[in-house]
Amino acid sequence: MNTAEIVFASDLANLSAALDFVRAQCRFAGASDDETFACELATDEACTNIIEHAYQGRKDGEIRLTCLWADEVFIIRLHDRGQPFDPTAVAVPPRAARLEDVEIGGLGLHFMRSLMDEIRFEFDPAGGNTLTMVKRLSHGAAAPREPR
Amino acid sequence: MNTAEIVFASDLANLSAALDFVRAQCRFAGASDDETFACELATDEACTNIIEHAYQGRKDGEIRLTCLWADEVFIIRLHDRGQPFDPTAVAVPPRAARLEDVEIGGLGLHFMRSLMDEIRFEFDPAGGNTLTMVKRLSHGAAAPREPR
Amino acid sequence: MADLNMSVTELKRCVLVKLSGRIDSSKAGEVERVFQDLESQGRFRIVLDMSEVEYISSAFLRVLITHMKKAKRFNRGNIYLAAMPPRIRDVFELSGLLPVFKVYDTVVEAVGDW
Amino acid sequence: MADLNMSVTELKRCVLVKLSGRIDSSKAGEVERVFQDLESQGRFRIVLDMSEVEYISSAFLRVLITHMKKAKRFNRGNIYLAAMPPRIRDVFELSGLLPVFKVYDTVVEAVGDW
Ligand SMILES: Nc1ncnc2c1ncn2[C@@H]1O[C@H](COP(=O)(O)OP(=O)(O)O)[C@@H](O)[C@H]1O
Ligand SMILES: Nc1ncnc2c1ncn2[C@@H]1O[C@H](COP(=O)(O)OP(=O)(O)O)[C@@H](O)[C@H]1O
Questions:
Q1: What is the CA radius of gyration of chain B?
Q2: What is the pLDDT of residue A7?
Q3: B with C: 3 or more CB pairs under 8 Å?
Q4: Per-residue pLDDT at A148
Q5: What's the confidence (pLDDT) of residue D1?
Q6: B3: which DSSP letter?
Q7: Which-ligand-closest: CA of B44?
Q8: How sure is the predictor about B139, in pLDDT bands with cuts at 50, 70 and 90?
Q9: How many Cβ atoms are within 10 Å of A145's Cβ, its own excluded?
Q10: Please, what is the Cα angle at A111 between A109 and A112, to 5 degrees?
Q11: 3-state SS of chain D?
Q12: What pLDDT digit, counting tens, does each position of B58-106 carry?
């Protein structure tokens, strides 16, 4: 299992660089463009939630982003020490046919669940919150660039 | 300190991907093109030595490549379980003015020493061999892309 | 890699806003400012040229919904979406919000519909 | 990123070998094979067009020295180096080997010198 890890402050100003980082590791792991897009978008939503909800806008919280990968799988792990929450209480936002009925928000978790093959939250009062998101890699289009 | 790590077999066929990996982390750490080139070349020479000398051509040895970086520094660490050697016994190859006098080989360590700001070998009979190479980053030309 | 770029062109019957590059959640606020500027000028008929957008997140969709609601108030306008790349369209589809948008294959068709 | 590419053009008085891309230590063997092929054909007057080389390591220098020695034997030829990008030239300089090479700014000058 290969790993790459960065630690950054819970400031939206750091988000683009964090996504660049995920993209670089995805490319290296031989993920397709679609798989890379999915990993980036899931990371974006997860980081934004940590910044806005877990750290409630505080800019000095610590976020640890770890990518782990092997031939067929790419794993993104996010760790923070902000507020825990109950993900099972967050429902898929209802589909609205008319603009007036659209509720603002609630899409982030839906995107993470839809784009990744598996997502898992762990809340440890002492150790902090850990989100693990797993994407299976097809290695369909591009040849894997993983050393073996 | 941010980290990125891959493990690969001591087969030259894995070298290009390992260099791609180092390059991706250098870019992410905000290293300049020259600093990136230096890190790549030092990694190339170090890996080639591990494959040819430490593992003596065996293709199934394990090489662990770790990049660590913070704002001003980029560190490359290589770990193997092959033969140790005495780096202090390796001299700078003598400068030759005529082709006939040029000795084949002996440039790898000279490149590593010249291109990096610091290099350090540790040989542990139980734990294996660890090479640590340090490059200071100027952040001169390009803006650092490191989250902070 | 391509950072977010925005250009605004005033046409006869609407305003054409071209977005290019990556609109991650930290960049959605920049798009929001463009909509706020247009609203403060009383301009509510908008066409978004999405042809060069490489990336969006739910934050962009949130901005879009908020300002589309404002634009449509009193029947004064709307935000039409034109020339979405396939991967961007996928995100709209995943959101379930596609039915509430007016979507056009080309910028010409969108502008021509005002 | 750019992989190694090689092309060989037979000119009247020499062979022009153009190398492009990255020649890391795992690729130096591919360059060596081109030199071996030329040697087996009795072609020893060589110009290397380096203008599109992005990366080299000591393994490439080793190959170059080995085959330059062969080329120069019996005064039958040499390997001239043309159009080195600055960063590649830095590596040659670091090696201390620059004095033993014939280096030309352009391919035309190198070919014209045979
Ligand atoms: N990391 C988190 N920490 C605390 N609360 C969270 C976290 N992620 C999500 N939530 C809660 O779940 C709700 C739904 O999140 P999400 O689907 O991302 O939509 P949005 O953030 O747009 O409201 C949020 O409003 C918040 O109350
Ligand atoms: N990792 C290593 N393990 C064992 N021996 C090594 C290692 N690196 C270098 N050496 C020894 O040091 C010598 C000089 O190495 P180097 O300067 O890289 O030149 P070259 O590999 O071209 O001979 C090698 O010939 C070898 O004997």
A1: 16
A2: 95
A3: no
A4: 43
A5: 55
A6: E
A7: 2
A8: confident
A9: 15
A10: 65
A11: CCCCEEEEEECCCCEEEEEEEEECCCCHHHHHHHHHHHHHCCCCEEEEEEEEEEEECHHHHHHHHHHHHHHHHHHCCEEEEECCCHHHHHHHHHHCCHHHCEEECCHHHHHHCC
A12: 999 999 999 999 989 999 999 999 999 999 999 888 888 889 889 888 8
Q: Which residues pair with A98 in a beta bridge?
A: none
C75: tokens are 């029947």
Tokens 């790993």 belong to A3
Those residues of chain C whose CB sits closer than 8 Å to some CB in chain A are 1, 22, 24-27, 55, 57-59, 61-62, 65-66, 68-69, 72, 87, 91, 94-97, 99-100
Contacts of B47 in chain D (CB under 8 A): 25
Nearest to A43 by CA among A60, A59, A63, A29: A63
B94's tokens? 């003598």
Written as one letter, the residue type at A26 is C
Interface contact flag, D26 B13, Cβ < 8 Å: yes
| Among protein residues, the one whose CA lies closest to atom 15 of ligand 1 | A106
pLDDT tens track for C63-108: 999 999 999 999 999 999 999 999 999 999 999 999 999 999 999 9
Residue ranges of chain A with pLDDT lower than 50?
A: 141-148
Q: Which domains does chain A have, with CATH numbers?
A: 2-136 (3.30.565.10)
Question: What lines the ligand 2 site, CB under 6 Å?
Answer: B 45, 49-50, 53-54, 83, 85, 90, 105-110; D 58
Q: Residues B40, B43, B48, CA angle at the centre, nearest 5°?
A: 125
Q: Of all residues in chain B, what percent carry a pLDDT higher than 90?
A: 82
- CATH number given to C5-112: 3.30.750.24
